[in-house]
Amino acid sequence: MFTGIPAAALDFYEDLAADNSKAFWTAHKDVYDSAVKAPMTALMAELEPEFGTAKIFRPFRDVRFSKDKTPYKTAQGAVVRTGAGAGYYVQIDASGLYLGGGFYSGMPEQVARFRAAVDEEVRGAELIAILDKLRKAKFTVGGDQLKTKPKGYEADHPRIELLRHKSLVVSKSVGCPDWLHTKRAATEVRKSWEAIRPLVEWLAAVVG
What we know:
Elements: H1 7-18, H2 22-51, E1 55-56, E2 75-83, E3 86-93, E4 96-103, H3 108-119, H4 121-136, E5 140-142, H5 160-163, E6 168-175, H6 184-207
Antiparallel strand pairs: 1-2, 2-3, 3-4, 4-6, 5-6
């Protein structure tokens, strides 16, 4: 049963950022298992009936092609995928709770379908309304964007900023409120994901 994210989870990541080594990890793996992995697993199990099965990310970094060879991630994330490259996201790190969702990666044909939908008057207006509501709810709208207009679209298109997107996500840094360490945290994550649901469903319908 989920009872909250303990303060020990945030402390663990603060210490890991200062000493990202195998020696530290080995000495504190029991803290990771009990204060990070177990609560995140319980949280995802509680939300599964409403949003679907989550993937909890491994704590190890893939350093094969990175100049940064530190071996461990300094955050614990989980994603509920609603389609290829789309879904809901939650993360815990030293600063607290981070929530998000949307279309975070995709194949060129998916990006093309996204832009075609943005170009349509009805679909495009739907997306504008969804994002306006999310901004009012204190979500930040982001994602990878082209620096110039995409091929096939005019620079003065009324939704050119959205057309430039190669991915589209919304996010909110919640921090460390008192309720984070209680079972209310599940309720707050649920509320945020419910707010994001219209965007995720719009993207699922047009991107696939």
